[in-house]
C-alpha cells in the first residue's frame, strides 16, 4: 500500500484541473489589474492594483493544498496555474514562472507550519500571512516597493494581506468545504 503522501493519478488529474481553471481566472485577473491600475494611478495608488489582485493570483496553491492535503500540493497547484497562464499568452509572459514559484513556495510554507495536519481557519491565516509576507518581499525587489514612502508600503501590505485573506483564504476554504459537502472530493482527500 502506498503512503498517503504520494501523489496518485487522481491527485495529478485534480492538480491539472485546478491549474487549468485558475490559469483562466489568472488571465482574467490581468484585465482587472489593468483597469485598477488605470483607475488608481491619478490618485497615486496605481501600484495598489497589484496588491488588490494578489489574493486572486494565489488561489490555486491554497485550493490545491486544502483539497489534496499533501506536501507539495500547494506549490504544484500554484506553479502549474502560473505556467499555464504563461502558455495562454498572459500579459506577464515568462515572469509568470517566477511569480508562480514565489507564490507557490509562500502558500506551501503556510501548510508546512501546521505540519500538513490542520486544515481549518488557522491554516487560512497561516497561508494568508506567509503568502502576504513572501510575495510582498518579492515585490519589494521586483516592483520597487522599497522606493515607496513608509506609509505607502504599509498601506500596500495591508491591502495585500486583506486581498489574500479574502480570496486565497476565506473564499478558498469555503470552496473546499462546498466541494467536500457535495462529495466532489473526499474530506481529507
Q: Count the strands?
A: 0
Global morphology: globular
Radius of gyration: 16 Å
Low-confidence segments: none
Main sheet characteristics? none
Q: What is the number of helices?
A: 7
The percentage helix is over 70%
Distance between the termini: 16 Å
Query: Pairing-aware structural class of the strands and helices?
Result: mainly alpha
Percentage of residues in DSSP E strands: under 5%
Q: Kindly report the average pLDDT value.
A: 93
> Element order, helices and strands?
HHHHHHH
Describe the structure.
- This protein is 74% helix and 0% strand.
- The chain is globular, with a radius of gyration of 16 Å.
- With 189 residues, it is mostly helical.
Amino acid at each position: 500500500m502506498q503512503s498517503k503522501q504520494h501523489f496518485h493519478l487522481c491527485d495529478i488529474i485534480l492538480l491539472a484541473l485546478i491549474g487549468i481553471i485558475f490559469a483562466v481566472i489568472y488571465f482574467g485577473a490581468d484585465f482587472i489589474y489593468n483597469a485598477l491600475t488605470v483607475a488608481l494611478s491619478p490618485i497615486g495608488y496605481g501600484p495598489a492594483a497589484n496588491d488588490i489582485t494578489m489574493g486572486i493570483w494565489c488561489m490555486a496553491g491554497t485550493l490545491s493544498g486544502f483539497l489534496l492535503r499533501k506536501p507539495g500540493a500547494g506549490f504544484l497547484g500554484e506553479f502549474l496555474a502560473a505556467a499555464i497562464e504563461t502558455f495562454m499568452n498572459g500579459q506577464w509572459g515568462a515572469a509568470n514562472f517566477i511569480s508562480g514559484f514565489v507564490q507557490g513556495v509562500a502558500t506551501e510554507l503556510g501548510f508546512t507550519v501546521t505540519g500538513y495536519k490542520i486544515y481549518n481557519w488557522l491554516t487560512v491565516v497561516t497561508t494568508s500571512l506567509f503568502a502576504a509576507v513572501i510575495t510582498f518581499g518579492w515585490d519589494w525587489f521586483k516592483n520597487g516597493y522599497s522606493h515607496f514612502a513608509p506609509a505607502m508600503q504599509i498601506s500596500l501590505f495591508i491591502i495585500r494581506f486583506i486581498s489574500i485573506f479574502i480570496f486565497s483564504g476565506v473564499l478558498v476554504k469555503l470552496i473546499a468545504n462546498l466541494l467536500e459537502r457535495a462529495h466532489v472530493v473526499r474530506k481529507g482527500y
